């Protein structure tokens, strides 16, 4: 009985966490798209929980965009995405690479997104 109650309350908490994470990420993505100053950034754990596994980053010097799969990082899930910035500097712009810009969180890698766009075009969507 107690275990059942705990499981039920855990499910409710999970749903709430997911909802909060989705809302937070939506707000963050919208701000990043408008290149607004970063007032907050979601945690790695929030992004993973909500299924936004890919962090898209841009090199301001060569404008290359990369998508980092957050699931593959050995980082604390409570760390903010912005804490990754120093580690995301562009390789081809070394040794003077500027800090990477965080573009957005996405459910898709760049390859997935291109594939989806291509399919949509083929289907005349
Ligand atoms: Zn670069």
Question: What's this model, at a glance?
Answer:
By secondary structure, the chain is α+β, with helices and mostly antiparallel strands.
Which structural class should the secondary elements be placed in?
A: alpha+beta
* SSE sequence, one letter per element: HHEEEH
Helix-residue proportion:
40-55%
Gap from first CA to last CA: 52 Å
Beta percentage is 5-15%
Average pLDDT, rounded to a whole number, is 92
Number of strand segments = 3
Shape: globular
Report the bound ligands by name, code or SMILES: zinc ion
Poorly predicted runs: none
Describe the structure.
The chain is of the alpha+beta class. It contains three helices and three strands. The protein has helices at residues 2-33, 44-49, 110-122, and strands at 54-58, 65-69, 101-106. A three-stranded antiparallel sheet has the order 2-1-3. Strand 1 (54-58) and strand 2 (65-69) form a beta hairpin. It starts with a helix and ends with a helix. The model has no long low-confidence stretch (mean pLDDT 92). It binds zinc ion (ZN). Zinc ion is lined by residues 59, 61-62, 64, 90, 92-93, 97.
């Amino acid at each position: 009985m107690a275990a059942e109650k705990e499981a039920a309350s855990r499910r409710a908490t999970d749903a709430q966490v997911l909802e909060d994470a989705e809302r937070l990420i939506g707000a963050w993505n919208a701000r990043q798209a408008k290149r607004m100053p970063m007032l907050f950034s979601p945690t790695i754990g929030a992004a993973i929980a909500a299924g936004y596994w890919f962090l898209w980053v841009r090199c301001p010097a060569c404008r290359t965009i990369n998508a980092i799969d957050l699931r593959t990082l050995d980082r604390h899930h409570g760390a903010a995405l912005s804490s990754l910035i120093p580690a995301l500097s562009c390789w081809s712009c070394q040794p003077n690479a500027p800090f990477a810009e965080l573009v957005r969180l996405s459910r898709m890698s760049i390859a997935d997104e291109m594939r989806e766009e291509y399919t949509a075009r083929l289907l005349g969507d």
